[in-house]
Amino acid sequence: MTPQDEAAAALLRSNRRRRSIRRWVAIGTLPLTLAALFFVGKLLSMYAFAHQAVTAYVVDDYAGSEASARGQEFLNWFEPYKAPFNIGTALGAAEKLPEARAKLEEALELAHGLEVCGVRINLALVVERMGDAARADGDGATAAQLYGEALTITVETPEECKSDEAQEQSSDPERDMSDSLEGTEERLKQKQQEQEQEPQPQEPQPEDEEPQPSEDKLEDLQDKLEQGTQERDQQQNDDPGSSGTDKPW
Amino acid sequence: MVMDHEKQRARYIAGTEGAPPVPPPGGYRGARRQQPPTAGAPLPPTSGATATLDVEKKPANALGWIALAASVLFALILLGTLVAGGTDILYGVTMLALQLVVVAVIIAALFSARGRMLGAIALIVTILFNVATVGGMSALQTSASGNYEGVKSDEQKHEEAYPAIKGTDPQQTLSQQSLEEVRAQSDALFADIRDRLTAEFGFTWVPVGDEDLRPERNGYGGESMLVEFTSTGWATNEPIQDYAQKLDVMAAIDDVVLEHGLWDLYSFNDPTNSGIDPSMIAKLYGSDDPLTQNTWEYYTENYPDPLRFYANIYDLSKDSDGGFLTARQAQSARTGEPLEGLQLVVIASGVLSEADRAEFEKKLEEYPGFG
Asked: How far is CA B188 from the centre of its chain?
């Protein structure tokens, strides 16, 4: 064997060794490479699904919004409250209120710090709408209970949710979060009050029993109040879509 | 000449003691030179250098150039769309289809020996700038701006411009008090209440905050022409801490509101006539007993007109743990209002300004059957 042949053989051996090293390096790092690609893909898909969910919601495609938001649920490791929040919000808009409430309660458990603000606002609105639905069905007791639950959710919202920092993180930047919370609280108080003052079935009164003169004014005022409540309920029963509820999502 | 020959010979033999002479510079004439290795033959490895095969350079094929051009062009299109704020376009079917075509071309180039290098460059460009990465950047940009326009149909755009509020009869809006009437009635009501309470209890007054007009949504994804009116509030400079005086103050206010056509005042904070659960009353007002509550909240309205009237009494003497004082101090810092005492405010939702009435009616003609 000439020196040139030996040199060529050595070169071939060296190249084979290098190829072998490269192959094992590739095989060894393959899991890491795949994990990195998967990680990047997951991160990028979050933006895509979130954007699709919001965009579909804006054009009243609530089923599409829910479907996109469900895409966020797969390996829900980052900002985990957002997936159930978006699903619950889409379900709420589609009037699937019990399902929406379940998802928003799930989101509330996963939310931290100022993240809870938007979740609480939407959860309170969904529960309020459940109360409206119960009232429209003539179930005053359930309505009052649901209004109370919605009021509790609103009142227990952290004070920090009225800060500028919370407003900057709001999913509804066109509305002041503090105003929304205060508006919801006042509205729920009124609804609970109205529910309390709705006329209850009366026992038949003896015809000869006259009201006490001293109570006349009180009776008149009570009648006026009840009349107002009845008119309001009549108006709402005529149009089930009218709940008087804000939609900040 | 003799000298030249002597010099040459001396160079060959000098100091060698019988060793064969070294060849002259440039070698012997006509001597057989070592041929340079032929193309493709391996070079012996040298220390400190990498052994390589000397492959004949061939130009890249068309597939490689197409892959590179397609990836660069597509990246430019993506970035242009990003700048234009077209997140929906980036995530659209067209862009996804184009992305797949570019990837297919790149893969084909990678399998081609003469297109591999350019295909690899195209692959790097595509990994950096693709629908997912640029779409993600664009989605972030859209999220920051909050500009989610989506792709609305003409019908949806029409609905979005509805001037009234879904679920509310627009004729009721037109027949009820206007913004200006609510404002005038509020001013008159406040003036009479202040006069009455000043005369009876000697209170002095300070305005709280500024009037606020908040646009109301129409329920179709847009803004209506109606607003929520919140009046400037009025607060007493004097605290009201005595239970009997609180009752007297509220009774006096009740008289005045009835004179102005509102319903009777009722209390949110008193469990005996409030519809709110006692536990919630305790949470909202510091206790479920009016004697020990830090806040009293009375309310009435002039339904079916939109004016809602609130009269609140804040009492720091009923602050058991200092939390109420802290909350009131924070509120006072925001609005400049007194820490305690009586406060009056009016809120009216869904009211229309008289200046907008004609335009409102004109727009409503475009929405038959809406409401």
From this structure: 42
